[in-house]
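Practice set, problem 2.
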Amino acid sequence: MRKFEEKKLLIATHNNGKLVEIADLLSPFGVSVSSNADHGLPEPEETETTFTGNARIKAHAAVKATGLPALSDDSGITVDGLDGAPGVYTADWAETPNGRNFVLAMTRTWHELEARNAPMPRKAQFRCCLVLAWPDGHDEVFEGVMPGELVWPMRGDQGHGYDPIFQPDGYKETFGEMDRWEKNKISHRADAFRKLIESCFA
């Protein structure tokens, strides 16, 4: 496992919220972070069929364009009753001509489970894959998982994406009902970041 010794890290995202969250996590290690947007980088095409594959594309594209080490993530939800769908296509299920509509995506997911007569509880997992890549081509991969089940109807207006229908194991609330800070402590992303920090920064 390679330790991160550099002082600068590019976060391969255009999402400012994600940038702030990651900068906060890495602040104890004296690492200054920037984003794809800061460098005017386009989003590379995600052509892989796994979270790891797509995270690798994003990290290595950012490294190649800037010469800086880069961290990327790819995440989504896998539903047992749908053979792991939507998976890497989680955001695609929400695409409409007018932008992303996750109410539409959640409704589609539930209707497909109903059509298959999927048994209860309807198990699902939020998954996050982080890839930390260096200019010499080396990378380290960390995967985080939050197991739970899907519920219907939607509950809560916190969070984003599929949060209102995802109830994490051991909790009575959906991610959509949960305080953001509480969710961030137990999420799939938190799980992956814990592994990244223990392995490469601590």
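Problem 2, part (b): a different protein.
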Amino acid sequence: MKKVTQPKVRSLAAGKSLVAKQMQAKNGDLLPKHLANMESILFVQEGKCTLNIYEEDKVLKQGDAFIVPPNVEHQIKAETDFKGIHFMPKNIEFQFFK
């Protein structure tokens, strides 16, 4: 089993109800498997990643976006050095898995 790596995360913008955070990972990094209680959007700013969701792999590259539904387990693997922007409600809650 591949070691899980925490992404580098920084806030980009926050409004009354929404927040945008940049996440960054190195080529080959496997980010933590998780779900959230609310819908969010992942936008690939640079590089390429594989999003495992619904037990399927979806390859996302620079310029792609994916709407992540609520209460669905998912995990990201960086296929190259990767930067993504996660757009989400401020009151979103995450649950992480081993």
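Answer key, part (b): The chain is about 0% helix and 60% strand. The radius of gyration is 12 Å.
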